[in-house]
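User: Please run a holo structure prediction.
Assistant: Happy to. Please share the sequence and the ligand.
User: Here you go; the ligand is fructose -6-phosphate.
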Amino acid sequence: MCGIVGYIGNAPEEHLLHGLEVLEYRGYDSAGIAVIHHGKMSIYKEIGRVANLKGKVIETEEFGAGIAHTRWATHGKVSLQNAHPQLSQNKDIAVVHNGIIENYNLLKEQLLKNGVKFDGDTDSEVIAKLFKDNLSIQTLKEVIDRLEGSYATLVVSKNENRIYFARNKLPLYLTKTSQSIILASDPMCFINQSKDYYDIGDGEYGYADLNSIKIYKNDQCVRKKKNKISFNIKTLANKEFNHYMLKEIYQSKDALINILENYKKKKIIKILNHIASIDTDKIYLIGCGTAYHAGLIGKTYLKKYLKKEVECVLASEFIYQNNIITNKTLCIFISQSGETADTILALKHSQKFGAKTVCITNVTYSSLATLADFTLPIYAGVERAVASTKAYFAQCIILYILARKMAGRRYLANIKKFLHEIDFSDDSLIQKLATMIYSKREIFFIGKSVDFITCEEASLKLKEISYINSQAFACGELKHGTLALIDNKKLIIVIATQSQLLNKVLSSASEIKSRGGQLVLFTPLSLTPQIKKIFKVIIPIKQAEEDFMPLQTILPLQKLAYFTAVKKGNDPDMPRNLAKSVTVE
Ligand code: F6R
């Protein structure tokens, strides 16, 4: 995680701050900048959001060079000392770093023995302190040769208007315009500045100034092709809504429209046909968090239509499970960002055993998309809020398309029908429920079959942004232990969308009611007055075709998490301790 940006040109402070704003989704524990004008280096650091730093930086129109960082703390608490840039011993060289230096303890011990003093507790500071008093391509190479772990790093010295860089496992991009050089963790920073960019590869390092760009790997000069900027930043502005999260929940419908438009194009159909023609005897779906939950929904589609062995695995567990992977295995990786370290590792692992790999992502230039054999874009548009909403919706739709396509069935007409059935539920009802739950310490969700998956996703969303401890349980599991938690202070949200399972779900609800628990129901089903009496609140959901009910149902539950977080005074877009892109294992 963490976002890094470098800039050489006029008004460096303004450009660096803009870059940090674009990269803030990667972490917002602290932010900092080092800027060089006329051989003098100024350092600015602040705890928390980029907005805090913005007020402190003295902006100039003058030419200069600088580097900047927005942090998601891994090693060392959130403090000014641990904020980047980190400085060399003589304070002439500044470093920003995204990643984890795994051998930092050993390196730190060696440096301490040599009398080097440390200001903070980060692994990143070791990189800065490894530079003695001079920065050159040789000293950069000497330093990175001693590092183990992952890094995208930028280094400047007060003696020159040049930025040195190195990358291992984490993204780093570079662009040159007629008057500037920009380096960043995400090429989104280049929009409106440049039309193309270089993707710095693993093991590559070099330097850039206004006269030249040099990129090396293993001491050899590397010639690189430029990538075109084919994405836009349209959805970054947020005028009509108080928060990106609410806007993005509503944008699920736009994602569906984009999918309908793009998944009839030849280019995508060709990819789908390729995947459908793969001879496979086992399918794995792999992702983290919400993307994993999309995988669970995808598993229900693939099993229903394909009738093949399908397993859905957490990416962070995948490589440790002795999974059977052969050249007849199809691994489908789901990731909004395409930069999730655990998912990338799982993909590389599966490729070692000859598996065919598909990636379902929102970011088609991401590391995951670059590594996978096939990429299926989800067309959700930029997702800014840390809690994933529209991407989940779109991932599930793509998995539906893939399952239908692999089974030789049509998909567009059903999705088109669903487009007209999407319903975001009545805000006032959900706000009332949020008022009921926001002061609770604990909430449980229960459901059966596919509704249990929706419970898991709803529960994750609620805890992530409201900080209320919430847990999801399969109805049938209650009596095997969980029922012990129920008393008259507990509130349980029941999800019941399948009429054939209603009686079983109601039995579980009654068992809870008998023990004093308060019940809330989300359902599209019509109920008798007797059944209605079991529940304190009933939130009606509009009926849609069975395959799309998990999507219809998650919309009001995402809104419930949102309104609860707002009611608690939390920022739903940037929940504490989290970041949008999880680029460390
Ligand atoms: C939860 C959430 C996370 C992500 C997870 C994977 O709201 O957003 O659980 O789903 O970190 O991220 P991606 O999809 O970028 O791989």
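Residues 174 and 183 are 4 Å apart (CA to CA).
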